[in-house]
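Input record (one chain):
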Amino acid sequence: MISHLSGTLFEKSTQSIIIEVNGVGYEIFVPLSTFYALPEHHEPVSLHIHTHVREDALVLFGFSTKLEKSLFLMLVSVSGIGPKLSANILSGMGAEELLRAIAAGDAPRLQAIPGIGKKTAERIALELKDRAARFSGDSEMPPMQTPGTQTERRMEDTLSALINLGYSAKMARAAITKAENRVTDKTLEALIKESLKILA
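The corresponding structure, as predicted from the sequence alone:
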């Protein structure tokens, strides 16, 4: 069971990344919070890993902090929530904010995350409230810096991220257009965050 990987960042996108370890490339699915913290291509990277075992495959999910991984594991323990939805939840809300919302039993706040309906939000709040309140882990989030990219690539990556979170392409494009006019630093991280604010 793989629980940690250190190597070189071979490729990255808002959906998954490839880490090269001793000549072997591992595809790892990551939430946006982890994507923001990634280094540049061909630079060293280290992630906490959850190995999801299916009948036909082993799927790796990676996290930049122990808190993210712990929240992911808490979420997948809830009935009806799989690893992909858990990663999307972490993409829709920062780890520390998510932990506070769950600990407070704030179902309406959870429901604001794309892909989370009323019943699912209430189930998360009910089943995880006590565990989240008792949780005492590493809640320190690393700096989330993403260097600027070419406009077309940045727009495509932002659109892909929003669609993966459950927004329609039409809604996502409209939000991205507005966000592009509002942000000043023109990074992918800033564009995604501003787009999510507009969509919320």
